[in-house]
């Protein structure tokens, strides 16, 4: 029955069925066939989302939409462009820097890629950049949003493993910066080699100080949210409320870019996005419960442990599994499917759950812009008005650079655990 569960899921997934439906339908069919009691579906749905930590997800999604509609992304791009200066490849560097920073507000890869891509993709194309290169770069840079705090993916991981979300946020800061650096280096080198950015630049009639003043309140957002978290002023869920309130203040009183009509539209968009995420969570939770009840998770864990006693060999296998899974499935579903398998392995080798969670999330970030199912690429290619196939060659250097970063995080856990230890969290 365990094999049937995974077989049905893969058949539905490869048939083009939406992932939430594929996960949920395969679970319900196997529950019925295995006589596990179809009545468990309803309470399992409720228990899957009735967690205080998960309340932060729709709130952070709402906050991300608020900040984007407030004009924060445009102000950040203008300031970063003036800060970096006019030179070959400067807009490529700006794209990565702003994506990493905005990821600390949105927490979502596709949202990050869409918000920054809408501004920078047309500007970079006008500046002489190849459309495929631009779409690949911003898709990769947008993926850093699930690594840096306040990552929705880390909230899910913390809720599933009973790990401190605040500690996970602290641990994600340096790896998030490392991911940005991994993308900046090939982006700058390719831009210089091909002469990208040598035509014009983003025009701005304001000076650096004025651009800083315009972007100041946006720059303060991650500091207020994370400062309150690390200072013990509020919990991650309360931080999401603070983020929403801060966005409302910016939009209505400081920048005055929001209206009641715009707020209603944002609420609708955020509700739709939150519903999709929470639906995946409920179905993925049911899938995980079904597989665990059937004993499939324990069997897979035992099989992995039986391959080798060398922790590096097992880590390599785990990372390969995650890499290929990330090419097909979203990060939330992967957490629910694979964490029950990996928990016994983590216990066996004594791996730190904070380090493992960041390593896992970093790996899944690569999947967000790795074909064939690369959600960020579909967002950016739509903005660049090109078929997604046109980015396949351009995205390879960024995938390889991120894999190099993943190797560093895997071999040197201290990179991840430095800040948690500095703050006395680990």
Brief overview, please?
The protein has 426 residues and is mostly helical.
Textual characterization of the structure:
Helices cover 77% and strands 0% of the residues. The chain is mainly α and 426 residues long. The chain has one domain. Helix 7 runs parallel beside helix 18 (375-384). The longest helix has 35 residues, at 260-294. The radius of gyration is 21 Å and the shape is globular. 49% of the residues are buried. The model has no long low-confidence stretch (mean pLDDT 88).
SSE succession: HHHHHHHHHHHHHHHHHHHH
Number of helices, where a helix is a run of at least 4 consecutive DSSP H or I residues: 20
* Helix content estimate: over 70%
Shape: globular
Number of strands: 0
The Rg value, from CA coordinates, equals: 21 Å
Mean pLDDT: 88
Distance between the termini: 40 Å
Biggest sheet details: none
Low-confidence segments, given as residue ranges, are none
- Estimate what percentage of residues fall within beta strands: under 5%
- Please state the structural category: mainly alpha
Oligomer: single chain
Domains, number = 1
Task: Draw up the topology in text.
Elements: H1 2-14, H2 19-33, H3 41-49, H4 56-70, H5 72-84, H6 90-106, H7 109-126, H8 131-142, H9 152-161, H10 165-194, H11 208-230, H12 236-254, H13 260-294, H14 296-307, H15 311-326, H16 331-349, H17 353-367, H18 375-384, H19 396-411, H20 414-422
Helix pairs in contact: 1-2, 2-13, 3-13, 4-12, 4-13, 5-6, 5-11, 6-7, 6-8, 6-10, 7-8, 7-18, 8-18, 9-16, 9-17, 10-17, 10-19, 10-20, 11-12, 13-16, 14-16, 15-16, 15-17, 17-19
